[in-house]
Amino acid sequence: MPRILIVYHSQTGNTRRMALAVAEGARGIEGTEAVLREAREASLEDLITADGLAVGSPENFGYMSGMVKDFFDRTFYGAQDRVFRKPYVVFVSAGNDGSGALRAIERIALGYKLRKVYDPLIAKGEVTAETLEKCRELGATLAAGCGLGIY
Ligand SMILES: Cc1cc2nc3c(=O)[nH]c(=O)nc-3n(C[C@H](O)[C@H](O)[C@H](O)COP(=O)(O)O)c2cc1C
After folding, report:
1. Which residue puts its alpha carbon closest to atom 2 of ligand 1?
2. CA–CA separation, 27 vs 29, rounded Å?
3. Minimum CA distance residue for ligand 1 atom 4
4. Which residues line ligand 1 (CB under 6 A)?
5. Rounded Cα–Cα distance for residues 135 and 141 (Å)
6. Atom of ligand 1 at shortest distance to CA of 11?
7. Three-point CA angle 80, 2, 26, nearest 5°
8. Is the pTM of this model over 0.90?
9. 45-72, pLDDT tens digit by residue?
């Protein structure tokens, strides 16, 4: 049974809506357990025990949100050599850019030696039905790949 961890932070709800849709997509794959965690509550154990990871952040001042950064700060040492090539995907909610947050998350993921398995999703402005559908697809793809063991 694949376990998918969705770690996110959201101040005004946009990233949260995306995270919920990612979880919904993952749960649509039979047998998947989708664990949705606000970044401030997500633990090293959540990360280690997940088969796949989805990280969601708003872009704040051209970077990931402080809470998502805090999650990485808290788990980095403990995760060393325990998440090698673990599949991950990223989704970002931004006002009009998102590239800085994405770049920062991808850079940190390199340090964890995570393996990106799907194109990142950046939603600019209002979260639309189309964005939510892409989020569901993101979650479903990650879960299906983890379930089949193709990553
Ligand atoms: C403090 C702060 C800084 C922000 N900085 C950026 C930014 O650098 N680039 C951008 O495109 N949007 C920026 N925004 C807009 C947010 O990324 C955008 O509103 C996003 O949808 C918020 O997601 P949330 O509802 O999950 O908190 C910023 C918003 C805040 C509150």
Report:
1. 60
2. 5
3. 60
4. 10-16, 58-62, 93-98
5. 10
6. 27
7. 110
8. yes
9. 999 999 999 999 999 999 999 999 999 9
